[in-house]
Amino acid sequence: MIVHLHEREEAVEQINSICLRLFDLWCEKRCVTPLAYLMHCWPLLDTGGASIRRLVDTMDELCKFHPDEVLEHDLWLPLHELAARADDLLVRHPEPSRLAAAG
Fold it and tell me: What domain of life does the UniProt record list for this protein's source (predicted)?
């Protein structure tokens, strides 16, 4: 259980690191629309599944409704990496409270 908790914390830290890179990039380039989407769901209020899912859903909406912004600033790779890490976290490293309830 402690190994799973450590892996979960590491995965959340990787997600936060990607978001920080995106934040810095979008501030530097003054990309208001993507920045507004990111600020809607990050910094994470907690590390629970609902917050992570909200982050993924919000970034999906950015790609869906503003693909020109994403293409213009070559953001497909970091956004894909963010989605992959978040999905991995939600599937492979569930919240500790959910582990206890399942056991």
Answer: Bacteria
Domain boundaries, the chain: 2-98
Q: What is the pLDDT of residues 26-36, one digit of tens each?
A: 999 998 999 99
Q: Nearest 5°: CA angle at 99, between 98 and 101?
A: 65
pTM: 0.82
Tokens of 20: 């920080």
Distance CA 68, CA 72 (A): 6
Locate all alpha helices (DSSP H) within 29-75, ordered by sequence: 32-41, 49-65, 67-72
H helices, E strands: number in the chain: 6, 0
Amino acid at 45: L
Computed on alpha carbons and rounded to an integer, the radius of gyration of the chain in Å comes to 14
